[in-house]
Amino acid sequence: MNTTDDQLKNGDPIVSPSMPTTAWLTDPRVYAVHRLDAHSDHACWSHAPVNGEGSDLGQSLDGEWRVRVETAPTGRFPDGTSDGPDWISDVSPLFAASDFDDSSFSRVQVPSHLETAGLLAPQYVNVQYPWDGHEDPKAPAIPEHGHVAVYRREFDADGEVAQAVREGRPVTLTFQGAATAIYVWLNGSFVGYAEDSFTPSEFDVTDAIKMEGNVLAVACYEYSSASWLEDQDFWRLHGLFRSVELNARPSAHVADIHADTDWDPATSRGSLSLDILVDGTPNAATADLVLRDKNGTTVWHTSTEATGTLHAEAEIDDASPWSAERPDLYTLSVALLDADGRILEIARTRIGFRRVSIEDGILKLNGKRLVFRGVNRHEFDCRRGRAITEEDMLWDIRFMKRHNINAVRTSHYPNQSRWYELCDEYGIYLIDETNLETHGSWNSPGDIPVGTSVPGDDEAWLGACIDRLDSMIMRDRNHPSVLIWSLGNESYAGEVLKAMSAHAHRLDPGRPVHYEGVNWNHAYDEISDFESRMYAKPAEIRDWLEHGDERGEASKPFVSCEYMHAMGNSCGGLSEFIDLERYERYSGGFIWDYIDQGLVQRLPDGCERLSVGGDWGDRPTDYEFVGNGIVFADRTPSPKAQEVKQLYSPVKLTPDGHGVTIENRNLFASTDGYVFAARLLEDGREIWRADYRFDVAAGDTQHHDIAFPDIDSDEGTREVTYEVDLLLAEATAWAPAGYELAFGQLTDTLNPEGDITGNDQDDGRATVTLSRWNAGIRRNDEEILMSRTQGGIVSWKRNGREMVIRRPEIVTFRPLTDNDRGNRSGYDRAAWFAAGRYAVVTDTSITQSDDGGLTAAYRYKLADPDHTPVSVTYRVTPDMRMQLTVEYPGNAAGAASLPAFGIEWELPGEYQHLRYYGTGPEETYRDRKQGGKLGIWDTTSEASTAPYLMVQETGSHEDVRWLEATDIQGHGLRVTQRGDRHFTASLLPWNTYTIEAARRHEDLPAPRHNYLRLLAAQMGVGGDDSWGAPVHTAYQLPADRPLTLDVNLELI
């Protein structure tokens, strides 16, 4: 509902709308003045456009503007200078005048944020409002110390806009996004006022615009009553951050298109119900309506009189339904013609035939049960903030398609219109979310509701909240990608949200409504068509799906609207959520979230970093809680994406020695568009490959034979891996032919009683020297030295190349992850931090073995409360191969589980190259390794350091069979598992404790050495949430269970 010119305040005008006042900033009942009604985002032309041609009726006002930011004065508008007179209420402010001198203003690009332009300091807060602690206004009041930006832009009318000005036809001015409230003047005339940062604000400027020398002035306020409705978990950024544009209107104009579609699974018939609003009163105008399919073939055509609201209906036989798997679109053209058949205007929009329904508590698309494998996505760029570009959007879409992500929740506001067009075109399901979040109005520390909330039951907020919902629905309802409307995020419950739900159902009955906040007050369960929860654990969801809620009800589809909190090194345990897909009422979920919100910040030394809250001096702040993406802020994939890609794949591959079982969980697409690449690997190296084509229908599971070659089992211990990769058969708009979408592997060990051996060496006898302080073993140009006092190996040389900086240290800790910090792991496991670091040697035994080798056995006492004994044994064979065994007895009953157990070996800095046979290519962890493919991978210590916003555990690799840490010439150390016991390893430029001590990457010292960490095991990283959820028990290392690292080492 727009605040109209004659009814600004519950029917009582507070002032003539031609005389704006700053009182509107604190009145929730005034949210739009002179703003035109919301409408569909169709495109218009003055002629028949050719493919790819943009609208010729628009004129962009993007580019350089002049702006000045100052403290918002109380009770008046700024005048644009630092010492000018107060504004008088019956005249325009000085800065709005055409002849105002703005030469001292800063130059900024629009769209952009004031903060990214350096005119305001960015501030990040999550739940709390940005003024909390500085001031304590009560809604709808706003802080006294806010800012206002005075924008000015000069322009001449151009193209069709100029023609409209000459002919006296209507011209509109649209701000696609402005935060938080704007007053607008054109050539000194007040144009209008608007709130709602994320939907268009369009004004009629016909009477104010002229051909040349136009001056557009905007007062953009940091705070208004709308700030209480926009408490999202993001950087608080302001200004004109989306495009500004003029649009000319012909004498007859398509003002709005409502294309309501349906697709009947039983008949494959598509239904189209059209309501088209035509403005203007042309003589004898007609509307020519044409619907064309993706090939440009006309499938429906009709003509009607072009006055008022037009209604038309169509039935399309054998219509191609829209889905994310097959995003078939139709183009609707509306041509307004004068009496002579000349084009007045052509409007076009793309539509899709599809049916969204909830049947027996199951969410369905086109009659098939739908599962979201989604992400929450903020619009974000590390340099531009939320002023993102089409290039950013395309990168995101392609990344999502390549990583099997099929859905996005537009958290927590409507996105740019172009995003919806791309989702229609490429195939992404959307939950479209209203720009509404009031978390800080009702939530106290500890996630405790305080009994008051905005909007709650307060009718003063009703108009603004309905208007935000209405603006979103009216703009976006023709987009087939939008399956569900969301009322907003974390705004508790109440009568206003209940009215919003009813309004959404009334305005668009064909889409269900989502809202999670009713979980705080189940008296309002009717608001949401879904059982939607944030960060519910897999066991909790399973319990609801099997038994219902506390009232025994489980009648709705379940959606995890936020789950798998991907903060830092996270996303452990994702597979347990995917396992829930076997329940029909489980409709999947949306990972929180898509992209880290790290803003680029230049440091005093000229270097740049990705900043978090607090880095800009912003207080209050929620610091690093801003970084929760599976994509880093600079749009490079994080290691977490590897797991998401594999587990989100709708095609599951299970190979065996004779073929592969293919489970196609797609709803509509068969597997005929894929190549199944079968590979046979021996000890990680490919020895055979063949490509196959298998056509498995959607929803079907089939086993297909593959002619894997026979393997001779008499050739010693080897590991054989049967692998099948899912590849694109042909190039798509989002990936090239041959791109891998998923894989399946089966590993079998032949002759498992042996070891996976290292490199062969020639025979020869070693010389053992048992001295008072050290014991040595030498063979040719290679020598190993064991200390009797320092607890281990202190030198290993060949040809003068030293492999030991200091003797390997026992590690019982790992650098804390963001999740660890949130769940008090550092507090609970503080004893393990000290246990290995300050362990002492209590016994040493060094002897020459009967075969001429050397055995050095050390007994340690850990610095934990139980003084747990640990043994470290080096056995060096006469051919200078070493067997290293590190044993933890598992007798620390009652102690917290171990973060990790093994050793850390300090190597010279030149040994920075890592080749390993294990899961990769990205880092893997105990609870995040299903996306890691078993193979031989190459990396470096530097590349292994994932650039999480906060320094933390990184670079680990699970299920390692062997590794080589080498210099550029290939010289170095080879480590191989003994028997069938894999190990965990990493090679990093810093040791465990240096990483733990650092907060940010610039805190880390310049690398001098490299640290090879060899572990029996490391606990998982977790991911249910980042503020208390522990790593699942199955992925912990209980202190009462023994752990053994058992490996062979040799120089290469």
Automatic annotation (TrEMBL):
UniProt cross-references to SMART domains, sorted A to Z: Bgal_small_N (SM01038)
Residue span of region Disordered: 1-20
GO BP: any one term: lactose catabolic process
Keyword Hydrolase: yes
Catalytic activity: Hydrolysis of terminal non-reducing beta-D-galactose residues in beta-D-galactosides
EC code: 3.2.1.23
Domain annotation Beta galactosidase small chain/: ranges: 776-1050
UniProtKB keywords: Glycosidase, Hydrolase
Molecular function terms from GO: beta-galactosidase activity
Family: Belongs to the glycosyl hydrolase 2 family.
Listed name of the protein: Beta-galactosidase
Gene source species: Bifidobacterium breve
Source taxonomy: Bacteria, Bacillati, Actinomycetota, Actinomycetes, Bifidobacteriales
